[in-house]
Amino acid sequence: MSLPFLRPVQRTLLYAFGALPLILAQTVLGSTPLGAGDPAWLSYKPVESAIVFPGGIPDTVVELGSGVLQDSAAREISAGWRGMLQHEPRLAHEEGNDSERQVVLGTSTQIEAWRPHQLPTASLAHDAYKLYWNKNFLVIEGGDDRGILYGTFALLREIAEQHSLMTLSQKSTPWAAIRWTNEWDNPNGTIERGYAGPSLFFEDGRVRADLSRAAAYARLLSSVGIDGCTINNVNADINLLRPENLHEIARIADVFRPYGVRLSLSVDMSSPQVIGGLKTFDPLAPQVAEWWKTKVDEIYDEIPDFGGVVIKADSEGRVGPSKYGRTASDAANVVARALKRHGGVVLYRGFVYNNHLDWRDMKADRARAGYDNFHPLDGKFDDNVIVQIKYGPIDFQVREPVSPLLAGLPHTNEAIELQITQEYTGQQRHLMYLVPMWKKSLDTDMRASAVAAPLPVKLLVSGRATATEHHTQGGFVGVANVGTEEWLANPLALANLYGFGRLAWDPGLDAETISDEWTRLTFGNDSQVRTTVNKLELNSWHIYESYTGPLGIGTLTDILGSHFGPGIESAERNGWGQWIRADERGVGMDRTVATGTGYIGQYPAPLAATYESLATCPDQLLLFMHHVPYTYRLHSGLTVMQSIDNTHYEGANAAAQQVSEWEALRGKVPDATFAEVMKRLTYQAGAAIVWRDAVTRWFTRESGVQDAIGRVGNYPNRIEAESMTLTGYKAVDVTPWETASGGKAVVCNLPECSAETTWTGSDGWYDVSVQYFDLMQGHSEFALAVAGHQVDRWSADDTLPGATLNGSTSTRRVFNRVAIHHGDSIQLTGRPDGEEKAPLDYLTIMPTAAHAGVFMNAVQ
Ligand code: GCV
Predict the structure, then answer these.
(1) pLDDT at 116
(2) How deeply is 527 buried, as exposed, middle or buried, from its count of CB atoms within 10 A (0-12, 13-18, 19+)?
(3) Overall average pLDDT of the 438-464 stretch
(4) Alpha-carbon torsion 10, 16, 21, 22, what sign?
(5) How many A from CA of 557 to the centre of ligand 1?
(6) Spatial distance between the Cα atoms of 850 and 470, rounded to a whole number of angstroms
(7) Whether the Cβ atoms of residue 151 and residue 141 lie closer than 8 Å to each other
(8) What's the CA gap between 671 and 27, in Å, rounded?
(9) Which of 336, 670, 400, 349 is nearest to 524 (CA)?
């Protein structure tokens, strides 16, 4: 039986909120017009060549050397010249006439041999480059071939930003040797915590036949100086180490190689036993050491430039050395020794904690685990082991203090692990530019003293912080999880991949500069586009944080499920240790040395003193460090409870505002990009209301403290579905209760149901929004009718993460400027699909005039 859906009678101003995004979303996502080979920031849009090269465009590119990296550099210059300058240069191995302008590519050695004693060749480090003019020669000099490629991309960046290159003179050296991404891809093509479709590398249990996307990805990585990529999940599939799979994986290394990206693998410590057939995987057993040596040799036979391995062990169900009473250093070293003669490294993850903690134990604390487990091993790791440490002590939350372990390993190589994929930070459906958050960690002074020289985290991970035998290299690892849907699915999220690479190269760059660079490279140099995109990106962390997790409490997301929507109590009373310790008296983890878990004592003394004292602990980290009553007054002067209410309302309003800011770019950015971003910002504006209401209502109930200005629980324009006249629909409780308005929804167990109300307000133009649930599976259909005429219909065909009604699957549909008269019936009709029972939460009807005709005011 089909629904008697009528043709819509009114469709105005739908672009941002109504049907059009849905229609566009279908075409945009369905046909992926940008394609997974989307050039992203390497789109090489036309620039004014007379500004860039006032003396004329160099017409020849001379490769002094040979090999794939120099060839890539030359090819890239051709692409850049073609796109940005609309000229096709000649590629040559010998310079032309001295009077012609030419680009010359070479290592310092090659340049010296080309013009003995004539050019100021410098001693450049690996991967470093210099750009300078010598007469008519624009020289790209590299410390090695990879440096030439990095220098080439830097030159192209200058051109894309339309800078004059008349007096170009630049030298740049990467901050640290390790600049890797980790991809959590599984052989079956899924990606753990990936939000942009399937893997670039694997499908159906094998390496993809077509690796062109992997090649395009390597080019992107190389353009921002990333030199390594771990292609499989840290929860490693052990079978990848089998010979037949290694042979296939070598094909991925082949497409990475022309861009200087070394392939690496995540490995499981039990491999010697599971695939090697040994009786043990004890890292101290000689046969285990021998197995690793043979296996590593086999890998290098297939992949001569293999970068090394990443190890997750004794963590979240992965086995590890503790099974034999051995340590992380025992485990890391046995693999590191096998890699050493090939120049490979071990990235051993510091993410080791007990996920069966006793929540009743007020001294138990997951945040302590990294330091407790690894600090005693300082100095025991071989020099080709690098301990890979997440920026915060918990797990990629929207705000965390920097991990104290970073200062706890002075005799060990360290890398900081950042997360580009937005696991706890909105899964690319919410806008969040992560660079400012990463900068906060990198700039944290771990000595934190007025008298001693600063010891920022960025220095600790450079490999140069202290001169000791085992502290010689370090770096940056970004968990990217790119997929086949335009890398990160959300066009604006690509600023994070770009920003990760730029920060890993130079953590001194500021977040504004990186955002602006990315914007100019991606969208061109239009000042309105730059201003708007930069504003959106730079405000986004603050906005997301303010409607999710306040005052350092954690993200308040559903930690037992999708890590996406609100799920406040999921943090409590279980072994995962992400406790917020909220009860009717107060909130926050007491991590002080004086009365709490003692975590704060893991920091160097001056920083510890700052956090230990309520007088000096920053508001932003208050609830991470202290347990306080809801009436506690912050440095801002607000009480904790009032601050929670205010920030959540401000955050939801700011999220709504993003929609109209982006609207100003219609026609100024490619249509498909415009529509995709609009769809996501519009979704975010609705989701921010769900978050706002869940968090404020939950804390109001828990604390008994009412919002001083009466907003919480008071929604004058809202009509609960369960209070409407229901035909077929039945009211159900939603769990957790705070993720549905009134704690209830209605569901339909018949082929078709309806919910109806009669408008008791005055005649006028109204914006109507329908809050409903859209599960991962099923495409329920909905229709909205006013006075008997259908005005809107839609299908719940998004793939929000979850199979139940909750804050992750709650979403909304908005229809603007509908004429409604007093006494009109307003009817919602739902037709279920499978387990998705056309679930409805509530209806909001707001006078259009009250908010200037644009539905963006989150206060409803
Ligand atoms: C790959 C978090 C994520 C897991 C991830 C883990 C890790 O717990 O939710 O999906 O596992 O971190 O970093 O190892």
Answers:
(1) 86
(2) exposed
(3) 89
(4) negative
(5) 15
(6) 65
(7) yes
(8) 12
(9) 670
Phi, psi values for residue 43, rounded to 5°: -85, -10
Range in 221-235, 448-462, 811-825 with the lowest mean pLDDT: 448-462
DSSP string of 376-431, one letter each residue:
GGTT-S-TTEEEEEESSSSSS-SS-PPPGGGGS-TTSEEEEEEE-S-TTTTTTTS-
Ligand 1 centroid–CA 235 distance in Å is 8
Long-range contact list for 131-135, CB < 8 A, 24+ apart? 131/155, 131/158, 131/168, 131/169, 131/170, 131/171, 132/168, 132/169, 132/170, 133/167, 133/168, 133/169, 135/98
CA 44 to chain CA mean position, Å: 25
Ligand 1 center from residue 306 Cα (angstroms): 24
What residue ranges line ligand 1, CB within 6 angstroms? 184, 192-193, 233-235, 312, 316, 351, 395
Nearest alpha carbon, ligand 1 atom 11: 235
User: If DSSP codes are grouped into helix, strand and coil, which group holds residue 318?
Assistant: strand
Rounded Cα distance, 455 and 457, in Å: 7
Which tens digits make up the pLDDT trace of 174-194? 999 999 999 999 999 999 999
Burial class (CB in 10 A: 0-12, 13-18, 19+), 749: exposed
Which distant-in-sequence residues (6+ apart) come within 8 Å of 403 by Cβ? 350, 370, 371, 389, 390, 391, 392, 393
Positions marked active-site: 316, 395, 423
For 273, other C-beta atoms within 10 Å of its C-beta total 18
- Ligand 1: which of 191, 266, 314, 316 to mutate, judged by most atoms within 8 Å of the beta carbon? 316
Q: What are phi and psi of 817, to 5 degrees?
A: 55, 60
What is the widest separation between alpha-carbon atoms in the chain?
A: 91
Ligand 1 center–CA 141 separation, angstroms:
41
Angle between helix 212-223 and helix 145-160 axes, rounded to 10 deg: 80
659-704 confidence digits (pLDDT tens): 999 999 999 999 999 999 999 999 999 999 999 999 999 999 999 9
Beta bridge partners of 345: 308
Per DSSP, helices labelled H in 484-628 are 494-505, 511-523, 527-547, 605-612, 622-625
Atom of ligand 1 nearest to the CA of 234: 1
Contact status, residue 74 vs residue 93, Cβ threshold 8 Å: no
Does an H or E element contain 703, and which? Answer: helix 671-703
Listed in sequence order, the DSSP H helices in 259-349 are: 271-274, 286-302, 328-340
Which residues, 6 or more positions from 536, have their beta carbon under 8 angstroms from its beta carbon? Answer: 431, 492, 658, 661, 662
Give the whole-angstrom CA distance, residue 471 versus residue 536: 39
3-class SS of residue 774: coil
For 70-108, the pLDDT digits (tens) are 999 999 999 999 999 999 999 998 877 888 899 999 999
Give the residue whose CA is nearest to atom 12 of ligand 1: 395
CA angle 295, 300, 302 (to 5 degrees): 100
Which of 769, 745, 794, 721 minimizes the C-alpha distance to 3?
Answer: 794
Ramachandran assignment for 823, one of left (phi > 0), alpha (psi -120 to 50 degrees), beta (any other): left
Q: Which amino acid is at 550?
A: P
DSSP sequence for 146-201: HHHHHHHHHHHHHHHTT---TT-EEEE--S-SEEEEE--B-TTS-BTT--SSS-SS
Quote the Cα angle for 153-154-155, to 5°: 90
Atom 14, ligand 1: which residue's CA is nearest? Answer: 234
